[in-house]
Amino acid sequence: MAKKEVPSDEMTTTSDDAPAPKGRSKKEKEPKGPDPIDELSANWEDAETKELLTRQLAKEVLSKGSWATIMFLVQDLDRKSKAYRAPKISVRRYKKSGGSYRYQSSFNISSEKQAREMMVIINKWFASDGPGRKAAEEVGEAAGNDDE
Which H or E run includes 114? Predict the structure, then answer.
């Protein structure tokens, strides 16, 4: 018996005469491959010399989904001395498109001192009597909830 020709965007044929709907049931999951977010890195090298100009020391994913936020601990190379500078933090946003992430924007926390100053402010704002905590409670947000 000959197979029926069916447009590929509508159905697939699983046997000679038993067409099946395209796709998987809700209970079946697609086989998982590597998460594209795992491939993102802050390492950056000179295209000509292949010298590593920005070296990634650590990475934390703050949010995933159609938009991802990742915090990197990095060091930049001083080209004159060939030594890496003090670590800084780079917070980067990526937009997911076609199964991969595309860089959109970033900002840097330029020093440990600045990072610690930001921590003090964030802790103050979200302390039990802080304005951030009070506002979150007004809108019914639980402590630690993420909006992404």
Answer: helix 112-125
